[in-house]
Amino acid sequence: MANDTAQNDVFLRDLWYFGIVGDEVKPGQMVQKERLGELILFGRTHEGEAFAMTDICPHRAILLSGGEMVKGETGTEVQCPYHGWRFRPDGQCAFIPSLTADQTEAMDISKIKAKTYRVHESYGIVWIWFGYDHDAEPCLPPPTLDIPRDSKVRMYEECDFHCDMDAAVISLMDPAHIPYIHNQSWWRTPKTMHEKQKTFGPIDRGFSMLPHKPSSNSFIYKLFGKDITTEIQLELPGLRPEYMKAGDKHVTTVTIVTPVSANKTIISIILYWNHAAVSLVPKWLIRRAIHVFMKQDSTAVDSQAIGLSYDPPQMFIHDSDIPAKWYLALRRNWEKHRKEGADFVNPLKENKTLRWRS
């Protein structure tokens, strides 16, 4: 449950968040990332195990990421660049070089510890746990995707959104903006708009646009064959996998929304596939398409953030804005569940069909 210091926390907690793609850090290396307003040092021991700790040295607050990882007496250790203090992956201080022999005997360095975070690696992703009570054990298992856990990350891209997390998540589930924000001949235009009908169903901490045939005005889907189906899910805190399947072949796009700070969010797009047709497409072309989409979305939400800074009222209409309302309800209900002990209630209790033009 939440502790008293977390009552006014702007971030949703007691959830697993995206940390880094595993390939970003090799054995014996480390990288700094900001997540939920905290500077975090992601590292990998020389034996290959991922870990995460604060990037702020508990001695004099310099960034540990400016140091190096060394092999000490206890194994892999992070060495501070300022005074050479060393910390194990569990945060425990292992060595203070400035201490004389008698000072070393008199000082119990086992009481010195850098803040650490629980991590889990699967699907080529290092997930990080953020709890309302930092010291409590995770109350949820790590995220599950409908692909093998050892699936290889084929492509990874990310983009900064200068808005809060809610605005970023809602933009991903907004079907009505596509012909306008993503107006291009090879995808969709306002001229191709027509009425659509999709059925949604509840999942743990979220909802799913249940498997269906892709829209006929989505040219890119036609590359994958006539028997393709797609399913799009949204699960707290901001996990949005899209599963495109044709028989035993799949193309899975995992879009993840991660808050960096209260007013900055990153959108990560991770691709997995075992479909031969996709392997024939030049990677630079796929990257180009991803960059175009992300830039279009980031421009839109950055502009929206300026408008929202004046605290105007917002309108949510039927049916295209219903997924946004579900997400906001999920967020409120999860926070109430974890802070107050109330039962978690999914606002979507049974399958529901929505209609809109897009």
Salient structural properties:
Rieske Iron-sulfur Protein; 33% strand; Rieske 2Fe-2S domain-containing protein; 2 domains; Naphthalene 1,2-dioxygenase Alpha Subunit, Chain A, domain 1; VanA_C_cat; 6 helices; Rieske_2Fe-2S; 19% helix; 358 residues; alpha+beta; iron; disordered N terminus
What does this 3D model show about the protein?
Pfam families: Rieske, VanA_C. InterPro entries: Cholesterol_7-desaturase, Rieske_2Fe-2S, Rieske_2Fe-2S_sf, VanA_C_cat. Residues 17-128 form the Rieske domain. With 358 residues, this protein is α+β, with helices and mostly antiparallel strands. It folds into two domains: 15-130, Rieske Iron-sulfur Protein (3-layer Sandwich), CATH 2.102.10; 155-357, Naphthalene 1,2-dioxygenase Alpha Subunit, Chain A, domain 1, CATH 3.90.380.10. Helix content is 19%, strand content 33%. A hairpin with a 3-residue loop joins β15 and β16. It starts with 14 loop residues before the first strand and ends with a strand. Residues 1-7 have low confidence and may be disordered.
